[in-house]
Amino acid sequence: MTTLPTPAGARRPAGRLHVDPARPAVLLAEGEIDIDVVHTLAGELGVDEVGAGRVLAAAGVEEVDLSAATFIDSSALALLVSIAPHRRPDRLRVRGATGAPLMTLQVTGLDAVLDLVPAGA
């Protein structure tokens, strides 16, 4: 994981997960999405990493936009998997996965259970 310096000298994750209030059904992923980023999101939601998917789904998240993500690890995959059951009978839509994130979804077989759509679709 890469971290970036903050003005106070502390380190923060190089990625970000957030829901844009203008698009509340979309979880936006930016940069490197790893355990630190997922942990930060879970803390913002007031739950642990396991409960984050349930809370996001209950809040109406129907899509995860990976178009600005450069890396996803197993904790990011676990977050996707934890949101997906709450979308049934629909599948969780994952938009814009390319490069390493797309390869990770394909190698793990999650491309078969998630609805992968191109960024512009």
Automatic annotation (TrEMBL):
Residues 31-111 form the MlaB-like STAS domain. InterPro entries: MlaB-like_STAS, STAS_dom_sf. CDD domains: STAS_anti-anti-sigma_factors. Gene3D superfamilies: STAS domain (3.30.750.24). This is STAS domain-containing protein.
